[in-house]
Amino acid sequence: MPQGLEAIFFEHRDLLQRFLRARGAGEQAEDLVQEVWLRASAKGSGPIGNPRSYLFRVAHNLMIDIHRSDVQRSRREEYWSDANGGDLAEVSDEPSAERAVIAQSMLARAHDVMDELGEPTTTIFRRFRIDGVGQKTIARDLSVSLATVEKHLQKAYRAMAALKQELDTE
Q1: In the chain, what are the domain boundaries?
Q2: Mean pLDDT of all residues in the chain?
Q3: Residue by residue, what is the 3-state secondary structure of the chain?
């Protein structure tokens, strides 16, 4: 059974996560809570008067350290960019020709798979996933039940998942 600082840490773990998320940790919050524990438990300076406050101070200081690190990295990248004429010659926003050809090929295969599913699956899938039309609206427009729309979407999702698996193994 944990005692002392460890018990307080486990008791307030979720609260520490929310605290870190509220300060910009996002998806890293869980990992940062672990970092808080590593930093807090490494001190070994004896009894702590207010362990809860201490843990939140450690979390706050961790976020400050992360922010400083981000600012320094950004400055380094800016200095590097300025030193190289403003642009990084080896970095391009455009995909390579090879990537573009591969992407076009994959898109063509996805279109073929959808076309093989036939109507109304293709129309339902495209209206829902590409056009952003709600399932209820699609059902009403096609004079079918909501369950029918869901059935066709599941059929399309299974086909796309199979295609993805096929493409991943190539």
Answers
A1: 4-83, 97-169
A2: 85
A3: CCCHHHHHHHHCHHHHHHHHHHCCCHHHHHHHHHHHHHHHHHCCCCCCCCHHHHHHHHHHHHHHHHHHHHHHHHHHHHHHHHHCCCCCCCCCCCCCHHHHHHHHHHHHHHHHHHHHHCCCHHHHHHHHHHCCCCHHHHHHHHCCCHHHHHHHHHHHHHHHHHHHHHHHHC
pLDDT digits (tens, 9 = 90+) for 37-85: 888 887 666 678 888 999 999 999 989 988 999 889 888 888 877 776 6
| Spatial distance between the Cα atoms of 120 and 75, rounded to a whole number of angstroms | 54
Q: What CATH architecture is 97-169?
A: Orthogonal Bundle (1.10)
Residue 105 confidence (pLDDT): 87
The reported pLDDT for the residue numbered 95 is 75
